[in-house]
Design goal:
Blueprint lengths: L10 E7 L6 H11 L2 E7 L5 H6 L4 E5 L5 H14 L4 E4 L11 H10 L3 E9 L6 H18 L11 E4 H4 L10 H14 L2 E8 L18 H19 L2 H10 L3 E2 L22
Parallel strand pairs: 1-2, 1-4, 2-3, 5-7, 7-8
Antiparallel strand pairs: 4-6, 5-6
Helix pairs in contact: 5-7, 5-8, 5-9
């Protein structure tokens, strides 16, 4: 279980980065406003990303060639563990996540120990490209079967992982599949729940002059990879009827201290004694 309380000094921000020269300095500077330690994992960028990061007061890890987001996250997690951090907040390097949401993720983690905290893109969701909403909704349905409880925005890259999740070994899956699988592995091996904090994610739109690089997420390719992997996990695990019933008993847990009072139940991780 995560040592409490979490705070800016014992939580590291991990940023996987691939050709993020456009906004990486802004992302890192924002993260440093709310956490004292930032780890950037450059995944074989061929632009100015590593040079920009090297000039900032952060830890820079580099892959000589592109290995994928899963490998970048594993490297960042291993470095955070080596340095003894109690938790990690992940953010994408393209600027779509707001660093100002980091304190809210930490607050939710302190209210919900032994849970992964997910920055769920529930605010201004209409600004999210339709194909990303489709992929998210479909992913939520499948990953819920794997975890044994319902959750929202299972594809978000802005999350808080407690130390026990960072220590999980041999989590299968590469690329975007890793982010789906770690939710399933944490649920099955550690009894971890997922708590969602509503956040606003920024995308390029005709109503804004903010510039963002093209998403690395390829709708059909990556959604197929995630879906086929998760379906294989669900079938291999078996007990489909029991898992379905458990999933139905555990609705998504949403923590929004600015909007919800009192804190919504269940507060305990699904599968724990308090969760039934």
């Amino acid at each position: 279980m995560t040592a409490l309380p979490l705070h800016r000094g014992n939580v590291a921000v991990v940023v996987p980065a691939l050709n993020e020269a456009l906004r990486i300095a802004e992302v890192v500077s924002g993260a440093l406003t709310h956490c004292d330690h930032v780890i950037v994992v450059d995944d074989g960028s061929d632009d100015a990303t590593p040079d920009i990061v090297a000039a900032l007061p952060v830890t820079l890890l580099r892959h000589a060639s592109r290995m994928g987001k899963g490998a970048a996250l594993r490297a960042g997690f291993a470095e955070a563990r080596r340095r003894g951090f109690a938790a990690v907040v992940t953010m994408d390097g393209d600027g779509q996540h707001r660093a100002s949401d980091i304190p809210r993720l930490i607050e939710a983690a302190n209210h919900h120990p032994n849970c992964i905290v997910n920055g769920a893109r529930l605010r201004k969701r209409s600004t999210q490209p339709w194909y990303r909403r489709l992929g998210n909704d479909f992913g939520d349905w499948g990953i819920a079967w794997g975890c044994g409880y319902r959750l929202v925005d299972s594809q978000s890259g802005q999350r808080l992982y407690p130390a026990n999740v960072l220590a999980l070994q041999d989590v299968p899956g590469e690329g975007f599949v890793f982010e789906a699988q770690i939710l399933i592995s944490a649920a099955r091996q550690l009894g971890c729940g997922v708590v969602s904090v509503p956040v606003e994610t920024r995308y390029h739109s005709v109503d804004s002059d903010e510039q963002f690089r093209k998403s690395h997420f390829r709708l059909f390719h990556d959604l197929y990879q995630i879906t086929s992997h998760v379906v294989g996990q669900v079938l291999a695990h078996g007990h489909l009827i029991d898992v379905y019933r458990r999933k139905r008993r555990h609705p998504p847990v949403i923590f929004d201290s600015g909007a919800l009072a009192p804190d919504p139940e269940p507060a305990a991780a699904p599968g724990s004694p308090q969760a039934g």
